Amino acid sequence: MFLRIFHILATNWQYSKMLMDGIEQMQKLANEINYSETTFIFNSADPESDFEIRIFTIKFELPFAGHPILGTAYSIMNLFDIWPEKKNILKLKTKAVEVSATVDVVYECS
Asked: Is the pTM of this model over 0.85?
């Protein structure tokens, strides 16, 4: 699996909020990154979900896309330190559905 991650840290909270509040800003960033899909991760307002994710192509937002969801789930579970209440199941809410991800077997590639 090829996975490239851009982790943006803003020292100014207002700048961070401005960057991620609007669809236009997310679309612009996805266009600048120029990958087939770009995901944005948010804390979920829904207590049944761990995170909400938004998926964008360079042209528009997608309500659901399998590969970006898998890559985002893997990143949250294994790379990012943003999941404080780690459980056996990670629940991601997309615009279309809620997706549950589990890890049954861990493979290490060299």
From this structure: no
